[in-house]
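Re-run with default settings, no changes from the original entry. Doing this only to confirm the output is reproducible before filing.
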Amino acid sequence: LTDGEGRALYMFTDDVPDRDEAACVGDCALAFPPFDLVLESDPPPVFEDGIDTHEITRMHRQDGAWQARYKGHPLYYRASEPQGQVSADGLDDSWFVARDYVAFLSITNSFEPTGTIDPRRMYLTDGFGRTLYVCLDDRPTDGGAPATSVCNGECLANRPPFAASASLRTTRLPSSLEPSVLGAFVRGDGIAQLTYRGWPLYYFRGDAAAGGTSGHNQGAWRAIDPIAFGEGETL
């Protein structure tokens, strides 16, 4: 995403989507100022084809400024960046050029996702910031053998699968993740489910909004560090 003059826009992993509070304030906001546009202007703003206008919203930041959001993610400029350049994608594993991501990253200070090696404790979300989980009792894809899910019936009512249909519009991932980590398989009940490094991905219905992580560490269920999970002895 860019503004109307072609300046790149960014998302920040420390933000919680759809929360009316920005993680980048003070000195941070001098380096990454918030981007805004007036949705109720006359005439209204024009968006390029492919951008769902219902996914563009605004929030009133705690420092008093207004900021536009895409899929709940607050949008920023990089102050030092000339027009037409993209210089901060992947910066500090925290800043990523704004796109229509199928999956994204978030930072927690309250728990340690499985596989964590980064002290900033990163975990995997969908493109709207909703936490994704794996079940360590599942069997991941292994060579030519498809994944096997142990979550069926009542379990699925509480742990809905991250459906492969989520990737029909986009398969983009943040630049620190390789596209090959994302896959899919058809479950025994016929549902096509996305996988991460071969592991089936799920939501938790107890997470009422983006940023919820109450499904972590319940039995075999884990939120995962997407950089380290599945690499060597990280389970």
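Helices lie at 27-31, 154-158. The longest helix spans residues 27-31.
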